[in-house]
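Ligand-bound model needed. NAP.
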Amino acid sequence: MTTTHAARTSTHTTLHGKVALVTGGSRGIGAATALRLAREGADVAVTYVNGKEAAEEVVRAVEALGRRAVALRADCADADEAAGAAERTVAALGGLDVLVNNAGVGVLGPLDGLALTDVDRVLAVNVRGVFLTSQAAAARMAAGGRIITIGSCMAQRVPGPGGTLYATSKAALIGLTKGLARELGPRGITANIVHPGPVDTDMNPADGPYAAGQAAMTALGRFGTADEVAATVAYLAGADYVTGAEFAVDGGHAA
Ligand SMILES: NC(=O)c1ccc[n+]([C@@H]2O[C@H](COP(=O)([O-])OP(=O)(O)OC[C@H]3O[C@@H](n4cnc5c(N)ncnc54)[C@H](OP(=O)(O)O)[C@@H]3O)[C@@H](O)[C@H]2O)c1
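Prediction:
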């Protein structure tokens, strides 16, 4: 029996019947990703810390697409809450197939201006939380599970001073991703990392004071959109034979 190209493509993109957990899904790249995965057919849990109303809006938008959704307050910086998000997703939606480690904080500034609290905060949210959520999710995933982590173009190339702490945290996620790929590959679970370039969100508005310089560092000369990052996450959620890989969605920042 032959399979058409269209049928193969559709098999590789549809997430019908899958459950996704998107950390930090109330705004920005996380919200766009939650909606994109829902459009591909997934039911979606999103976590948030402060943005309860924004997260509930994302839930309503997912439900309007005919999918199930739940908003969970879970601070990645808290070890129990980071790990607990996976179990709460299973309890609310009946399983967990796709984890998107999106929640993150950006603390930029000169080395001698960074306090111990800054270091602890960034590593707790961007690294320890991602590790613990991935660990808890992997324990609940069956074959076909997907772990997709949002890194940063600054994990690959730090184009100027002030990014040491943030780059440290995001570069750690490359090691996490490769380690997870090796450890979970035998179970049929993949792990990949997406490195956005400058993307227009609350964290990094395209009309902010440093925006022009960031846009100029990309080959395309512009900020990306959250939807452009979400499209690559959705691709990875449906990709079977891709693991341990880094994907720059950065307009050529690393070129
Ligand atoms: N924007 C960029 O230019 C850019 C570039 C490269 C990489 N990234 C990465 O992309 C990811 C998303 O960034 P973004 O620009 O969309 O950020 P954003 O607009 O600031 O949104 C951040 C999201 O993460 C949530 N969040 C923050 N701290 C959290 C915590 N401790 N626990 C759980 N959720 C938390 C926020 O939830 P609440 O508001 O509800 O608290 C919000 O939903 C981050 O990992 C960031 O480092 C962004």
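Confidence is low (pLDDT under 50) at residues 1-13.
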